[in-house]
Amino acid sequence: MTTQTPSTEAQFTPYPARLTAQLDPGLSRWLWLVKWLLALLHFVVLVLLWVGVLVVSVVAFFAILFTGRYPRPLFDFTVGVLRWSWRVDYYTYAALGTDRYPPFTLADVPDYPTHWDVSYPEQLSRGLVLVKWWLLAIPHYLILNLAGGGIRALTGLLALFAGVSLLFTGQYPRGIFDLVIGLNRWTLRVAAYAALLTDEYPPFRLDQGGEEPLAHP
Predict the structure, then answer these.
(1) Which residues does residue 115 pair with via DSSP β-bridges, in sequence order?
(2) Do residues 123 and 198 touch, judged by C-beta distance below 8 A?
(3) What gap in Å lies between CA 198 and CA 194, rounded to an integer?
(4) Distance between CA atoms of 18 and 211, rounded to whole angstroms?
């Protein structure tokens, strides 16, 4: 009698929130110094959009609680705002990975150098919605806020190092890029979980590099 061992692929499932990014070749040596100014309009629009996300999240909370489903139009809106925010972060001081100006859209832009998406869940737990966004996510919040004084501060510092390198050498260090994307990937996974977009708990793992891992345990 022989025992069959499951294939490696069968033991893994892809995480529903996915981030990919390509480092632009030939980044400007100096443009990063003024991106805060160039992106001001995006920041204003995003403030308004995030107010909308807060309202949508309350509606979605009760929808999931009573029906077990996140209404698809509300889901697409929340994912779109997170996607838009990430594109602006990637252009500015969370990564400085591209000089291409972010588009004003909630939709994915196929030829933009970074992408973020979440698979739509047909069913969500009615019970988990009560605790996952504040209680179950606490370990991630602690790690993301304590590491280097906060992930936002850490990614900003790493992006600053990359900007200085661009200024003097014209090169973005690949190791810094891979780490920056890994930190942002972790943050966005937690954001998707806390925003009730998925029931799958984010892994405690730093997946570095521009390509999303095909699967995780």
Answers:
(1) 20
(2) no
(3) 8
(4) 9
Q: How far apart are CA 111 and CA 87, in angstroms?
A: 12
pLDDT in tens, 74-101: 999 999 999 999 999 999 999 999 999 9
On whether the CB atoms of residues 176 and 209 are closer than 8 A, the answer is no
**Distance separating alpha carbons of residues 60 and 161, to the nearest angstrom:** 40
CA distance 22 to 16: 20
Rg of the chain's alpha carbons, rounded to an integer?
19
Exposure of 3 in the CB half-sphere (CA atoms within 13 A): 1
Q: List the beta bridge partners of residue 118.
A: 17
- Give the residue ranges of DSSP H helices in 39-104: 40-67, 72-91
Which amino acid makes up residue 169?
A: T
| DSSP bridge pairs for 17 | 118
Question: pTM here?
Answer: 0.92
Q: Which positions ≥6 away from 208 have C-beta within 8 Å?
A: 178, 179, 181, 182
* Beta pairing partners, 117: 18
Residue with tokens 């996952």: 132
Q: Which two tokens stand for residue 51?
A: 């107010």
Q: In this structure, what token pair is assigned to residue 185? A: 């990937």
- Could you tell me the CA-to-CA distances from 143 to 71, 72, 146, 157 in Å, in that order? 31, 31, 5, 17
